[in-house]
Write a structure and sequence with these properties.
Length: 419
């Protein structure tokens, strides 16, 4: 097989720190096993086609030839790639700029030209680098004392120095979060209690900073950031270091799908079963604007509540640390019904053999679910809120009581005479 042929590389220059993605053009590139910049091997080599390869440059200096090695040998064309001198790093700020003498503080150093940072010195002691971007280096401080200069070293050189002060301030300790949970949308106020909290500069919910609104020696008040429904650690950073973590739980907004029954008396007092999701941490159940006098959480999907007194049709809502449910899919409506009232029977007498059609006049009859003559259930038809027609059953001669029942309860008893 013939050796590969390299005709061009694009771009033809890059940082001396390496890390530049280049496209190599030529022929006979299928099966390439190595790409070199001078004598240094490139990484992330991908053979796109017989005429193209992509690769990531290694570190280097000056101008070097790019070669490709394949089954047939190594290319011999002189295709140059020039390493540009890296710009010197500059650092502009550190957060925090002080910490305990024992070290262990996570410090974020901001600046420019920080790519490829290989060393951060606190005086003569190196910190442990955990993350690097072109404008930021995150490092964990070593132990130290007094005020020392901090510098960052990159392929472009050594940065200017910024002061970092080791303090004898005791490390912060946090003992409670109030509340310990809240909505996934965030925005709620959380009070963090503890000791040695003076000068708090950073509060993290997981990896997300919260907005600090008040600080004392024994408490920090923050506005919780948004987060996915889960439990994560909260920590407080002060000049004394980073506190112990405490768990904070993000709770999803509750959803109410249905209530059963959908009707009940205006006097309230009946039991209503509420079904939905995210109900486990229920703190309140409301029927419209009226709070339920009591409720029991059955599961994350079910709550049993006692209906309060009210009128009309209302929306049943559930409140948790995740918020208050809103109207969505399903039927969260509950209707209060007036007690049924019978004002007339037409006729009010009938044959002992039964079968007479009796018109029951009254009010609040729309939701009639049973009619009885002397305790005997009879067939009926509801025509309106004021009229129900029932069929009288057979009965011995005499007077019996007619009752209408709805979800609001029994009506008054009205006399009917069998003759």
């Amino acid at each position: 097989m013939a050796a590969p042929v390299v005709t061009s590389v694009s771009p033809s220059q890059g940082s001396s720190a390496g890390g530049t993605t280049v496209t190599i053009n030529g022929s006979g590139l299928t099966g390439a096993v190595a790409v070199r910049f001078g004598t240094a091997l490139a990484s992330n080599v991908v053979v796109v086609s017989d005429t193209q390869i992509t690769a990531t440059t290694p570190a280097g200096t000056g101008t070097v030839n790019v070669t490709v090695t394949g089954p047939g040998g190594t290319s011999t064309q002189n295709v140059p790639f020039t390493y540009a001198a890296a710009a010197a790093p500059t650092i502009t700020s550190m957060v925090p700029s002080s910490g305990p003498a024992a070290g262990g503080t996570t410090v974020v150093i901001n600046g420019t030209n920080l790519s490829g940072a290989t060393l951060v010195l606190f005086g003569a002691s190196p910190g442990a680098i955990t993350n690097v971007t072109p404008t930021q280096v995150t490092v964990i401080t070593p132990a130290g004392s007094g005020t020392v200069n901090v510098t960052v070293t990159t392929p472009g050189g050594v940065s200017n120095a910024l002061p970092y002060t080791y303090t004898s301030v005791p490390a912060p300790v946090i003992t409670s979060l109030t509340p310990p949970d809240g909505p996934s949308a965030g925005g709620n106020s959380v009070v963090i209690a503890g000791t040695n909290l003076t000068g708090a500069t950073l509060v993290l919910f997981g990896f997300t900073p919260a907005a600090i609104t008040a600080v004392t020696a024994t408490s920090v008040t923050v506005t919780a950031p948004a987060g996915l429904p889960s439990t994560m650690n909260v920590t407080v950073t002060t000049p004394g270091g980073v506190s112990n973590p405490l768990p904070y739980t993000y709770v999803a907004v509750p959803v109410v799908f249905d209530v059963e029954p959908h009707f009940g008396p205006e006097a309230g007092g009946n039991t209503v079963t509420i079904t939905g999701s995210n109900l486990a941490l229920t703190t309140a159940v409301d029927f419209g604007a009226a709070p339920a006098p009591s409720f029991v959480v059955i599961s994350d999907n079910e709550v049993s509540a006692i209906a309060p007194p009210d009128f009309g049709t209302v929306v049943v809502t559930v409140t948790t640390p995740g918020g208050t449910s809103t109207v969505g899919p399903g039927n969260p409506y509950y209707t209060y019904l007036g007690t049924p009232v019978i004002t007339s029977l037409t006729p009010d007498t009938g044959s002992t053999s039964g079968g007479d059609a009796i018109t029951i006049g009254g009010s609040n009859l729309t939701f009639t679910d049973s009619v009885t003559f002397g305790g005997i259930p009879v067939p009926f038809t509801v025509f309106s809120d004021n009229i129900v027609v029932a069929t009288a059953p057979p009965h011995a001669a005499g007077v019996v009581s007619v009752l209408v029942h709805t979800p609001a309860g029994d009506s008054n008893a009205f006399p009917f005479t069998y003759v």
